[in-house]
Amino acid sequence: MGIICELKDVNKIYSKNKVLCNINLRLEEGKVYGFIGRNGAGKTTTMRIITGLAYPTSGQVVLDGETDIKGLTEKRKKIGCIIEGPALNLDMTAKQNLKALCILYGVSFDRIEKILKLVGLCNESGKKVKHFSLGMKQRLGIGMALVNDPKFLILDEPINGLDPDGILEVRNLIKQISRKRKATILVSSHILSELYQMVDNYILINKGEIIENITHEELTQKTQRYVLITDKDTAKVKHVLKNQLKTDDFKEMEDGTIRVYELAGEVLQIMNLFADNGIDPAGISVSEDSLEEYFFKRIGR
């Protein structure tokens, strides 16, 4: 696959405050990337630099092979984005918002109905946007980002503040756009469990530095599997684990459960030993670290 976007040693300084430090990033065509980091980590600044809404203090932006100002300007015309919320006219309908953007881009109105259908707003096209739910506004915002038929879509916190139904609608829409349009998508979110269900790669950023860029498959391999034990007598469980199973690789969680990492493939052995010691756990199962847990392991809480 080709590289649609590359950042080379990008730095950004605001008022002597370095917010991006030597960012190196390569995004391949047709993949969905999850951009993960705390507030202030540099996600939005990176997205703004890619789209031309901000400029790097130093370093280079490459879009589809172009590096000069003229070439980057042309390539940015094929980027769709929502950064810091969709720009919607609340006193206009969904269709009117899309028409206004079509005029701005100089494209035909013919694509409006297709976009409304894709984002699930055909039946709401005549309603003023101020009467939309937050989820509907986000879907319209994504639809507006598709007006210029982009090869590259950048979505900054598209599910932030949505209720579960709204999150599901936007998640399914992003997956549908990826499948049908084969576009490259860079999406940031604080709801990491949702990213896990929609992206191919994860980019972790902390304090302005990219600390990891891994595939979904690599993350699955790196997340630790463990035996999850629920029992009231945690002291006795820990005693058996340490003295009879000879393992220190376990951890008691805040909710009182115990995670045993070293013996994830030995559930039957653990259950038999518990039975021999009069332990009847309320629950025992095999699980694995979540994306949130892996993220916090990498950057600290």
From TrEMBL:
Record-annotated ABC transporter domain positions: 5-232
Stretches that traverse the bilayer: none
GO molecular function: ATP binding; ATP hydrolysis activity
Keyword line: ATP-binding, Nucleotide-binding, Transport
Cleavable signal peptide: none
Family label: Belongs to the ABC transporter superfamily.
Name of the featured protein: ABC transporter ATP-binding protein
